[in-house]
Amino acid sequence: MTIKVKAVIGSTSSTSFNLKLVEFMKNRYADQLDITPVFINDLETFSVDLESNVPANVKAFKDDVKDSDAVLFAVPEYNFSIPGALKNAIDWLSRGGDFTIKDKPGFIIGSSMGVLGSVRAQIHLREILSNPALSPVLLPGNEVYIGSVHEKINEAGELTDQGTINFLDQVVQNFVEFYKKNKAAVLA
């Protein structure tokens, strides 16, 4: 069984380290997770004025994320928080009455060139995702903060730091078990 995971890429950069991490995970864990990156680059800025006539790219984004078993957020840290584009995407996920990610199992990874590896951004992201209109069921206790990421990914975009790889292996295994338990509880 592979879990269909949509990975919301929290950066709009064409050289995003978080995208490189997601691509690494997509390849390494293909036997367990079917990971598809979902990009937020071209989403309209959220406005209640647009809610009754949702732009096509926003509808496609929401449908893409909804069409999954689980969601992964790959978040960089900008100015001690999440990027504005990611907050905009989350605002869209919370609106329209379809509860796109409510009760959907999920987890968060994040990296930065700084030593803290998106710690503050992830704290803010978890707070934002606790909104009842969002409320994914996040894997607890498996925070993935990859600091100095530029020293851990080679020119080909491959993660090379064995300690980080071992840690990701464990987190993915924990997520798979968490997902199975969550799914069993829902079916019970």
UniProtKB/TrEMBL annotation:
Residues 4-150 form the NADPH-dependent FMN reductase-like domain. It holds the Pfam family FMN_red. Coiled coil: none annotated. InterPro entries: Flavoprotein-like_sf (IPR029039), FMN_Rdtase-like_dom (IPR005025), NAD(P)H-dep_reductase (IPR050712). Gene3D superfamilies: 3.40.50.360. PANTHER family: CHROMATE REDUCTASE, NAD(P)H-DEPENDENT FMN REDUCTASE LOT6. Belongs to the azoreductase type 2 family. This is FMN reductase.
